[in-house]
Amino acid sequence: MVSFTSVPRILRLALAGLALLVLGACGFHLKGATPLPFQSLYTNINLDSEFGARLRRTISANSPGTRFTDRRQDADVYLHQINESQNLRQLSLDADGRVEEYELNLEFQFELLDRTGHVLLPPTTLLSVRELPYNDRIVQAKEGEIDRTFKDMRNSLIDQILRRMSSPEVRAAYADAADRPVVPIPDDKVLEATPPAGPSSIRP
């Protein structure tokens, strides 16, 4: 048997490149997520927003057989964003009463219904909390860091949303949707673009 180390370096590099190419062709799949059980999806989340565009890309990458529709009536399921809120609060102060640390809270609530209003996933609240040191001598830099942190928190919620929608519970609910509770179809108007991730101003 010929060992891998005896293979010429240029051939080893070529084999490694080929392996990466094969992996790339398989597409990215989020760890812990499986393809969604439905073929079409409508959401009132603005897909032209940064959050909505990333949601679309993530779902398309992990579930290529699922497409987004422009009308709720044409979709198998409705991903309904109920509410989103973010909050910034002072976590600790120094001896002079200046803020040393902030706590960032992001809350996202959603539900998943089929086209006739059967509940596949009841109202579910996802919460993300981060702590961030603060320095009042570099306010502008810290405001930018808060913006970026809220953005990262929002992006991390997308992974959680996908995992919930691809869970065994949702798959079972979709397969037996006729036995699920029925609720009135909520407003399907597309929401306005998500406001800037961070607060408009912070006080030291």
UniProtKB/TrEMBL annotation:
- Report the Gene3D superfamilies cross-referenced here: Lipoprotein like domain (3.30.160.150)
Source domain of life: Bacteria
Under the heading InterPro entries, the entry gives: LPS_assembly_LptE
* Keyword check for Ubl conjugation: no
Region Disordered, as annotated, extends over 184-204
Per UniProt, which keywords does this protein have?
Cell outer membrane, Lipoprotein, Membrane, Palmitate, Signal
Q: Name one Pfam family in it.
A: LptE
The positions making up the signal sequence are: none
Physiological role: Together with LptD, is involved in the assembly of lipopolysaccharide (LPS) at the surface of the outer membrane. Required for the proper assembly of LptD. Binds LPS and may serve as the LPS recognition site at the outer membrane.
Q: Which family does it belong to?
A: Belongs to the LptE lipoprotein family.
Subunit record text: Component of the lipopolysaccharide transport and assembly complex. Interacts with LptD.
Q: Which PANTHER family match?
A: LPS-ASSEMBLY LIPOPROTEIN LPTE (PTHR38098:SF1)
- What's the name of the protein? LPS-assembly lipoprotein LptE
Biological source species:
Castellaniella daejeonensis
